[in-house]
Amino acid sequence: MNRCEQTQLELTNALAEGNLHTPAELQAHLRGCANCRQAWQDIRLTWRALGGLPEEEGPASLLQTTRARVLEELERERANAESARMGKSALVSVTLGVVFSVASVWVLGQKSDLTAFSPQVLLSIGAAWTALYAAAVLLAMRGDGTPRYGIAARWVGIAGLIAMGLSLVLTGSCSIGQALDYCQMGPGVRHLFAGVQSQTLYFLLGSFYSMVPLLIATAIIGLKAPRHPVVLGLMAGGVFVLLTLPAILLQCGAFSLGVSLSWIFGSLVGSVAGGSVGSLTGAVLYRHLRPLHTGADTGV
Amino acid sequence: MLAYAGGDAGAFDELFKRYGARLFNFLLRATGDRAMAEDLFQATFLRLHQARKNYAAGTFKAFLFTIAANLLRDEWNRAEHKRRVSMDDEVIETIPAGNRSTDSDPESFIEARQTTKVLEGAIEQLPQGLREVLLLSRYQGLANREIASALGISEGAVKVRLFRALAQLRAALRAPDKAAGESGNE
């Protein structure tokens, strides 16, 4: 490529790249070369003429069809991904449900006599418990979409699971049977419960055993999801009551129906009270800990 | 593009609106065949959709036209397509009214129409390698570096091809009758 061709090549590319300043070396060559000056003028005219060629947008039907096909692909991929995520979540939920259920039965087995139950009954209760745990885990994992009535469902599931964990710790530390014995025979409290019927006692202890874990759990969650604390507390209480039902059945299987119902109602009342108060406490703490909060919390 | 790669349909719509027409123009000029351009247009967007997660850096425009250029080459490699003789007339008929700025001056209009016709014919006559570089540079505004990357050639080769393409078009404009006669459009 000779000097003139090289100059014209550089000029062409400078034009294409939008370089407004022609290098001094090229300018010097242009000044002394009439042929290249003419070529440079031709190049610019050609370039300009190319810019004037008519353009087409393409047929509307083509644009619509293409757009629709890609959007359809996007939707299909989204549905597949959602399905895969649901499948994975379901698998994790059931696995954790089995683990939590076995662990719970093991904790209760340390404090209660489970030999009163036939293996079939134990298996049935274990299966029901697994299902309940799996549902709570699924709620905690997948319930993170649009909040309903200001509550993100995942926090309800998390609060219920935390409360259940604390309840098992409480039961492992001091079972309701031990607490009952202490109330009836303990030197300090015996006279307080002397006139209390056993059903009432189970109601009170059931309330206490539900209220304390839920109070702690919802107070923690209230810090994360401070909006609509009462609703959150009640919903978490509902999840917790369901999760504790198998525990109550396993612990009071040897007792009467009245005792079981008292305990269940006690658990219900304790859950409602603990959930509401705990959530409110968490929400109040949230406001004090984050005075500059403007409303954009992470949980709801 | 990153939002689209993440599955955002709105982001795709935005990109489609911005680049759809430009892509169609590029393909139409590159192939000179409307049916082929339409097929490649769809194929490019579908390929883009499949490859969107591979997008890492650079401009979306370069990414899109790299895909289009690759598909064009595949198409060229698959079959030697026949140029459609009616292409010039077809394109001339689609000149938007706004572009006919010389309507009030019959002589200028005829001159502009002839220039357009000659240029369209000359572009079609360009070898594929020169034509795709010219179209990507002049009509898509890609930098030489981006064109080199899109076509898998060196930046130096892009410069040479662009120069040669312009040289051929200049020659055609200087001798329109001959060029048009060669292309068989007159």
In short:
Chain A is mainly alpha-helical and 300 residues long. Chain A has helices spanning 3-16, 24-32, 34-51, 60-111, 119-142, 153-173, 176-185, 198-224, 229-251, 257-289. The longest helix of chain B is centred in the first third of the chain and has 23 residues, at 9-31.
Keyword list:
heterodimer, A: 300 residues, mainly alpha, 2 domains, 77% helix, 0% strand, disordered C terminus, B: 186 residues, Rna Polymerase Sigma Factor, Chain: A, Arc Repressor Mutant, subunit A, 10 helices, globular
Largest sheet composition of chain A: none
The gyration radius over C-alpha positions of chain A equals: 37 Å
The amount of beta strand of chain B, in percent, is under 5%
Helical segment count of chain A: 10
What pair of chains forms the biggest interface? A-B, 39 and 43 residues
Going by CATH, what is the homologous superfamily of the largest domain in chain B? Winged helix-like DNA-binding domain superfamily/Winged helix DNA-binding domain
Q: Mean pLDDT of chain B, nearest integer?
A: 77
Q: What structural category characterises the helix and strand content of chain B?
A: mainly alpha
Number of strands of chain B: 0
Structural class of chain A: mainly alpha
Our measurement of the CA-to-CA distance between the termini of chain A, rounded to an integer number of angstroms, reads 70 Å
State the helicity of chain A in percent bands. over 70%
Provide mean pLDDT of chain A, rounded.
Answer: 85
| Terminal CA distance of chain B | 45 Å
- What is the helix tally of chain B? 10
Topology at a glance:
The complex is a heterodimer of chains A (300) and B (186).
Chain A: H1 3-16, H2 24-32, H3 34-51, H4 60-111, H5 119-142, H6 153-173, H7 176-185, H8 198-224, H9 229-251, H10 257-289
Chain B: H1 2-5, H2 9-31, H3 34-51, H4 60-78, H5 87-93, H6 106-125, H7 128-138, H8 144-151, H9 155-174, H10 176-183
Helix pairs in contact in B: 2-3, 2-4, 3-4, 4-8, 6-9, 6-10, 7-9, 8-9, 9-10
